[in-house]
Design goal:
- The complex is a heterodimer of chains A (611) and B (557).
- In chain A, 60% of the residues lie in helices and 10% in strands.
- By secondary structure, chain A is an alpha/beta fold.
- In chain A, α4 (47-79) runs antiparallel to α10, α6 runs antiparallel to α7 (183-231) and α7 runs antiparallel to α9.
- Chain B is 62% helix and 11% strand.
- Chain B has 18 helices and ten strands.
- In chain B, a hairpin with a 2-residue loop joins β4 and β5 (401-402).
- In chain B, α9 (216-268) packs across α10 (274-320).
- The chains are: A alpha/beta (611), B alpha/beta (557).
- Chains A and B meet through α1, α4, α5, α6 and α7 of A and α2, α3, α4, α5 and α7 of B.
């Protein structure tokens, strides 16, 4: 017997972190559904490790049960005052099981954790590989949820499958042993175990799912309340609206507390039922054994062993609740793994020389019910051309760049590329925008191939740059730069930093400084410059720059932009910005608004528009 | 972290008074559980002893079943009370934290604190569930059950009682010793582990960048290698961490062996009844179980205790600081803003001085443009007038009355505020515009929206003003947000306007619309506007430059 009660309430509570809509889908399905099978497929290569861990876990439970049974046998036999020798085996057994249980537990936990961590390693790698082939960028909270989803795989094995396997094996062994003694006794034991070990855990899982489904929307509503009350504190104070919003939050919190209390009551009632039923089974087994004429010593041993087996039911309740809790996580993991690759590998080789990019009537619509992100865009980007795209946020500037990187394909119109063998303009005046159209015309004019047709792993060599979601990795400055060009020399790394205005900083700190999580240990300006230096180092045929000087003050911004343009002399640049200064050096300025080209002008446009 | 290493935080009883009654209830239930445990064990021992002699003793069996049912019900009751404590404590702390935000005002929330508070108040406090329902009941039983068991054993078999009494303290002692050892070892590995664990998130976050440079494929191997190194490092830590569990387990099981074998030998010698022997055997593991359960759950409950500590620290900070903007001595009702005078006002923060001995007189009908570099003190000046910040030295007079002595809510009712980045609430567009005036007539809201050039935006939405915005106004562009903030000010129809760069971060088209409606808003009102754009400066009657916390009048109209 143990005084420990599982803590069903905590489990039900945590599972409510899942958004309600997804819980709806998950409810009503047991832990044996397809998602679990999909995830457990990763355990297959490690099956012998898991079988070993399962046997160790069963051995641990069996040792605990055996300890109580052997001790009972020892006492019951000793009461008959036999010669001491009759007890010696039981005494050794009691001592061995007492030590064995702890040692088995220790070994089992190490074995199971090692196996599950191996499995998770593979799951992580496969998820990452799956995401490589998927287009959309994701929000930060979705990402951290994905990380904890993968951790749910560990819980599935350690806290759901292993306890179930151990309890199952021990229960089978116990019923089997009882069968030796007497079939009727075994039948009573089996009936009791079916109720406490199967029916009640199923009920517990059901309650946990139900509770989570009720709590999730309440928690979500309350989370919104807190965000409004905390982040909107200034607005609420200034407009005297605080009491109204605070009352709303307090009401949600109280409702949350009320539901939590009600759910706890039900969960703990299940626990109490399991404990009571275990005792009833033990007595029923004892009485049946007596009526079947079993020896007195065995009556006591069977009763105590049945009680100990019944306690396994309590661990099954916890496992069932955990299983219900992680179901949403597992389903998301399975969905990610099942997703077919977005595009097949291969495709056209990317031309070595210059490419000529064209957008013709290109349109992009992210959602059918929303306005198009881009509409009827024409853009001609022969080698050496510099285009600035300006416009408010949400105008479609970043979407335009995404068309050029091939991250998205146009829903209407075309985005094409073709080789252009025109000599690169080495004329220094080129950066003043003095580009002669005929000199840059492609030697093989004609219809280009869609950007999507090119090998998407090679395409970044032709078109890349500093894009909107540029990320700095938690690694050294050098590692972050080398991402742009893995074979860059030390001198090239430093030169790129100088171009991006990071030269002095690199001189002072060197390239081996770690930048922190997403560059957290750098200032905003340094972050931006490092990301820019990486793009400069990549040195693609067409350099895309999405707000490259964000976070720099105007004077620095102009200087850095000029330096990058000087470095790019004669090669294409597409700059996306909301600032109008420094655009003199561009051949064309395209003004986007609401996904449409509102205005476009050649060099001098900016001056005429008073920027 | 040291302050949370104790198993119970007494500040809870002070902060959430209703928990005092619950703690008492836990104690009573815990004692009742101990009685039930002892009764069940003694009755079962009798029933077993009778069964060994092939007799049924119905009375003993009945008492056992009743006592065990009572024990199960009481244990669950313990859990229910603990869960109630958790729910109540969370609700109370949440209300207290949010009230502290209200009391301290927005100035208190600067920087990290806002994010920390939002997270703690939301999900952070949910970690209390694990502590309350998992750990606390076991802690209570860890006191009551061993006492009950020891008392019974002392009467039944003194030798066994001594064994239990001697070995029982080993659980907390070993728990502390081993836990201490493992903590040292774990902390050594913690940094490395966290780095390796964070790698996956880092790689996922940087996936677009990896793709942009064509490096994503190459990183799949890196992810696998890093995850494998994470496994090796984790296993190193676990080998030590699981030792504490091993020790707890061993103390419990070995004690059973230590008690059972001598008892068996004494039975052999006829010095003991079988019922007494069974009582000893059944009760001994009960003495260790709650402490063991508490020990294994302590680490899981640490998260809850940390959240609790964080909440108390924040609440203490809210009570302790004095630089805030509470309306403590706000006896006087605010007059209509006539002449506003800043006299020698200095605002000093921990490291910087935002305003230095500033004098400024704002007469009714004046429109003063504030210019100067960012960080020069312009926003601080607006925050002073909003009552979000109080002067470190000097004072602000409104028609001769000190702002510090006015009823802040009443004063703010005279203000229309357009911040740089207004917070939009997860509510309807109409409710966002009519912030602080929920009963406003529909027509007035619509008029304010039109005045702020929000009309076309509203018309384009299928549900118009009833459109519900996402969290933090998700779904609106920055230009639309700015216009919504202007609409609030239009609806407010306040005599004094405070505008903080209403056209910052806007594109040309939005800027034009916002400038036009701003100009019509300030018409005929007193206004302080932080501005850079020539179009807005033209509306000003005076231009004041603020740089490094000092004021310079540029143009006097």
């Amino acid at each position: 017997m143990t005084t420990s009660a599982a803590s069903p309430h905590a489990v039900a509570a945590r599972s409510a972190d899942l958004p309600g809509s997804e819980l709806g889908k998950a409810s009503g399905r047991g832990p044996g559904d397809a998602a679990v099978r999909r995830v457990l497929a990763f355990a297959y290569p490690l099956r012998w490790r898991f079988v070993g861990a399962g046997l160790l876990a069963a051995g641990t439970e069996a040792a605990g049960l055996g300890l109580m049974a052997a001790a009972t046998w020892l006492l019951a036999t000793a009461a008959g005052q036999p010669p001491l020798i009759a007890l010696s085996i039981a005494i050794v057994l009691v001592r061995a099981l007492a030590i064995g249980r702890g040692v088995l537990r220790y070994v089992e936990r190490l074995a199971s954790h090692d196996a599950v961590l191996r499995m998770v390693t593979e799951v992580r790698a496969r998820i990452f590989a799956a995401l490589v082939d998927r287009p959309p960028a994701r929000r930060a909270d979705a990402l951290s949820r994905m990380v904890s989803d993968v951790d749910a795989v560990q819980d599935l094995v350690i806290r759901v499958m292993l306890p179930m396997a151990a309890a199952g094996l021990v229960a089978v062994a116990a019923v089997g042993t009882a069968m030796f003694a007497d079939p009727a006794v075994a039948l009573v034991l089996l009936a009791g175990l079916l109720v406490t070990g199967v029916a009640l855990p199923l009920l517990a899982a059901r309650l946990a799912r139900h509770g989570a489904a009720r709590l999730a929307p309440l928690r979500a509503a309350y989370a919104v309340d807190t965000v409004d009350l905390v982040h909107g504190a200034a607005d609420l104070a200034a407009f005297g609206a605080r009491p109204e919003y605070e009352a709303r939050g307090t009401a949600h919190a109280a409702e949350l507390a009320r539901v939590e209390r009600a759910l706890a009551l039900r969960s703990f009632a299940v626990d109490a039922a399991a404990t009571t039923l275990g005792a009833v089974t033990a007595m029923a087994v004892m009485i049946t054994a007596l009526s079947r004429g079993l020896p007195g010593v065995w009556l006591a041993v069977l009763a105590v062993a049945t009680l100990a087996t019944g306690e396994l039911a309590l661990s099954l309740l916890a496992a069932a609740r955990k299983g219900a809790e992680i179901q949403g996580s597992l389903r998301r993991v399975a969905e990610l793994l099942d997703e077919p690759a977005a595009a097949a590998d291969g495709g056209l080789p990317v031309p070595d020389g210059s490419v000529h990019l064209r957008l013709r009537g290109a349109g992009v619509r992210y959602r059918a019910d929303a306005a198009p992100a881009l509409h009827d865009i024409d853009l001609d980007l022969p080698p050496g051309r510099r285009i600035a795209v300006v416009g408010p946020s949400g105008a479609g500037k970043s979407t335009l760049l995404a068309l050029l990187t091939g991250a998205i394909t146009p829903d209407s119109g075309t985005a094409t590329a073709e080789p252009a063998h025109a000599a690169r303009s080495t004329d220094p005046t080129a950066e003043n925008g003095d580009t002669d159209g005929s000199a840059l015309a492609p030697s093989a004019p004609g219809v280009g191939m869609p950007i999507a047709a090119f090998d998407r792993h090679q395409w970044p060599a032709a078109v890349t740059g500093l894009l909107a979601d540029a990320h700095l990795f938690h690694a050294s400055v050098r590692d972050n730069l080398l991402l742009g060009r893995p074979d860059a020399t030390e001198d090239e790394l430093v030169a790129a930093c100088r171009t991006a205005g990071l030269g002095d900083w690199v001189d002072a700190h060197g390239l081996d400084v770690r930048v922190g999580e997403d560059g957290a240990e750098l200032s905003g300006g340094q972050r931006q410059r490092l990301a820019l230096a990486r793009a400069v180092l990549a040195d693609p045929q067409v350099l895309l720059l999405d707000e490259p000087t964000e976070g720099l003050d105007p004077a620095q911004a102009d200087a850095v932009l000029a330096a990058v343009l000087a470095h790019r002399r004669g090669r294409s640049v597409v700059l996306v910005t909301h600032r109008l200064s420094g655009l003199d050096a561009f051949d064309e300025v395209v003004v986007l608004d609401g996904g449409r080209v509102k205005e476009r002008g050649t060099q001098g446009w900016v001056r005429a528009h008073g920027g | 972290m040291d302050s949370v290493a104790r198993p119970f935080d007494p500040r809870l009883l002070r902060q959430v008074p209703s928990t005092r009654r619950d703690v008492l209830l836990l104690g009573v239930l815990g004692a009742a559980v101990a009685v039930a445990v002892v009764t069940a064990a003694v009755a079962l021992a009798r029933a077993l002893a009778a069964a060994v002699e092939l007799r049924l003793e119905p009375a003993a069996i009945t008492v056992f079943l009743l006592a065990l049912t009572a024990r199960a019900a009481l244990t669950s009751g313990l859990g229910v009370v603990a869960a109630r404590m958790a729910a109540t404590a969370k609700a109370t702390l949440r209300a207290d934290l949010l009230a502290a935000v209200g009391r301290r005002g927005p100035g208190w929330l600067a920087g990290q604190r806002a994010g920390e508070l939002a997270t703690l108040t939301g999900r952070g406090l949910d970690a209390l569930d694990g502590y309350f329902t998992g750990y606390l009941p076991q802690l209570v039983l860890g006191v009551t059950v061993p006492i009950g068991v020891l008392a019974t054993l002392a009467f039944t078999d003194l030798a066994s009682a001594v064994i239990v009494l001697v070995t029982l303290p080993l659980i907390p002692i070993f728990g502390i010793l081993v836990g201490w050892q493992t903590r040292i070892a774990t902390e050594r590995q913690w940094r490395r582990l966290r780095m390796l664990g964070g790698h996956f998130l880092d790689m996922l976050s940087g996936l677009p960048t990896l793709k942009a440079f064509g490096r994503a494929r190459a990183q799949v191997t890196a992810v696998r290698e890093m995850a494998d190194r994470h496994r090796t490092a984790t296993m190193g830590t676990l080998r030590i961490a699981f030792l504490s569990a091993l020790v707890l387990e061993l103390v419990g099981t070995i004690s059973v062996a230590l008690v059972a074998v001598p008892v068996g030998l004494r039975l052999l010698g006829g010095g003991m009844t079988l019922a007494a022997a069974f009582t000893v055997l059944l009760l001994t593991p009960e003495a260790y179980a709650p402490l063991r359960a508490a020990g294994t759950r302590f680490h899981a409950s640490m998260e809850g205790l940390t959240a609790l500590d964080q909440a108390f620290t924040l609440l203490a900070a809210a009570d302790g600081e004095t630089s805030g903007s509470g309306s403590a001595g706000s006896a006087r009702t605010a007059p209509r803003p006539g002449v506003i005078e800043l006299q020698g006002v200095t605002v000093a923060y921990e490291r910087t001085t935002a305003l230095r001995d500033v004098d400024l007189t704002i007469r009714p009908g004046e429109r003063i443009a504030l210019v100067g570099p960012s960080g020069g003190g312009k926003s601080t000046l607006l925050n002073l007038l909003l009552g979000f910040t109080t002067p470190t030295a000097g004072r602000i007079l409104v028609d001769g009355a000190d702002l510090a002595e006015l009823d802040l809510d009443g004063w703010r009712r005279q203000l229309g505020w357009v911040p740089q980045r207004a917070h939009l609430f997860a509510d309807t567009l109409a409710a966002n515009i009519a912030l602080g005036a929920p009963g406003t007539a529909r027509e007035r809201v619509a008029r304010a929206a039109r005045a702020a050039a929000l009309g076309p935006v509203v018309d384009a939405l299928p549900q118009g003003l009833d459109t519900v915005l996402g969290e933090r106004g998700h779904g609106l562009s920055s230009g639309e947000r700015q216009r919504l903030a202007l609409a609030r000010a239009f609806l407010r129809d306040a005599p004094l306007l405070l505008l903080d760069e209403p056209t910052a971060r806007l594109d040309a088209a939005s800027e034009q619309a916002v400038v036009e409606s701003t100009l019509s808003l300030v018409e005929g009102r007193t206004a302080l506007l932080v501005a850079h754009r020539p179009a807005l400066l033209a509306a000003a009657t005076r231009v004041v430059r603020i740089d490094h916390g000092t004021l310079n009048e540029l143009v006097t109209a």
